[in-house]
Amino acid sequence: MSPAPVPPRLEVRHLTRRFAAQAVVDDISFEIPAGQVTCLLGPSGCGKSTTLRMIAGVDVQDAGEIHVDGTLICGPGLTVPPEQRAIGLMFQDFALFPHLTVAENVAFGLSGTAREKNARVAELLERVHLSRHRGSYPHALSGGEQQRVALARALAPRPRILLMDEPFSGLDERLRDDIRDETLALLKEEGTAVLLVTHEPHEAMRMADEILLMRAGSIVQRGAPYNLYNAPVDRRAAAFFSDLNVIESTVEGALASTPFGEFLAPGHADGTRIDIVIRPQHLKIDFDRAGRGPNPTQEEGTPARGIVTRARYLGRESLVEFRLETGQVLKASVPNVFLPKAGTPMWLMIRRDRCFVFPAQG
Fold first, then answer.
1. Rounded to an integer, what distance in angstroms lies between the CA atom of residue 338 and that of residue 332?
2. Structural domain spans, the chain
3. What pLDDT was estimated at residue 291?
4. Beta 193-198 vs 37-41: how paired, if at all?
5. Would you give the DSSP letter of residue 6?
6. Distance of CA 206 to the CA centre of its chain
7. DSSP annotation of 325
8. Average pLDDT of 197-211?
9. CATH architecture for residues 243-359
10. What is the pTM of this model?
C-alpha cells in the first residue's frame, strides 16, 4: 500500500476579495510545497499584496479557502487568528522595534525557556553574520543589516510559511543581489515555503522556483521562470520581462507579411491582425557592404535594411536603434561596446524560432 501523498505546505483555493463591486483578487488558486519559493509577480494594484494579507489573516476573503499542511485555516465559517497560523511575515520597511536590541528583536516572537530562546537567537544571528551586533540597536545598522535582522526574526519561530512583501525594495541596488542570495540560501536551509510578492521581474527570476504572473486580480500564467520568459502567454506577459520589438501584420492564407519576409501564423484566421514580437537581444545585425545583403540562415529568414538612428552604451551591453525603410523603429541589444554612428546602414535579421506571434494587442 503506497503512502498517502503529502499535502502542499500552503494551498489556496478560489480565493476572492472584493472592494465594493470590484474584484481585487478574482478566484485564484495555487499551492506551494515545503522548501519552495513562489513569487507573486505583477504591476502595482494587481492584487498581490491583498492576497498576501488574506493568507496572513490580516484581511478576510469574500470567498475561497486557505489550507496549511492540509488543514483548513480560513474558509466559510472558519477563520484561524493570524498568530495561530504558523505563518511568518516580512515587509519592505523591516518593522524592527527601535527600542529593542538586535537579539531582542529576533527573540520577540519566541516561546520556551530563556536558554532555548538564546540558543535560537544565537544560531540565527550566526547564520546571517550578525553575531557581533546582537547588542546593537536597529538605528546603528545599515539597511542590509536591518534586512537580515528582519529575516532572522521572521524565521526564529520556525514558521512553516514565510510571506515576503517587496522585502528588498528599500535596499541600495548594490546590496540587493548579495542580500537576496543570502536570504534564499537561508530559506532553503530552513525548508520554509515562501510566498514572495514583487513587481520586479528580475527579482522574481532570481529567487523563485515558480512565478505566478498576476494581472487585474487574476493569475494569467504560472510556471518556472524559464518557461514564463521563453513561452509567454501573451504580448503583455512577454513585455513584463523585457523590452520588445513589435511588428504588426495581417494574416492572409496562414501567412503574415513583414519586412523580414513571410511568417507562418497557424491558428489565426485570414484577416486577423497579429503582433510578431522579438526581444532586442534576438535581433541580429550585420554591416551593409556596398548594398550587398548578408547570407542568412534558414532560421533568420529575409534580412531587412535599417539605418542607425541612435546608439547608447548601457554598461554591459549597447542598445542600437534602427529605422527600417517602412518607417518601423526596432531596437537591438549587443554585448559590450558597439556604437555605430547615426545614419549608418546595416542589415537586420531575426530568428523565427525566437519570435512570438500573438493576436494584436488592443
1. 11
2. 10-239, 243-359
3. 53
4. parallel
5. P
6. 8
7. T
8. 93
9. Beta Barrel (2.40)
10. 0.88
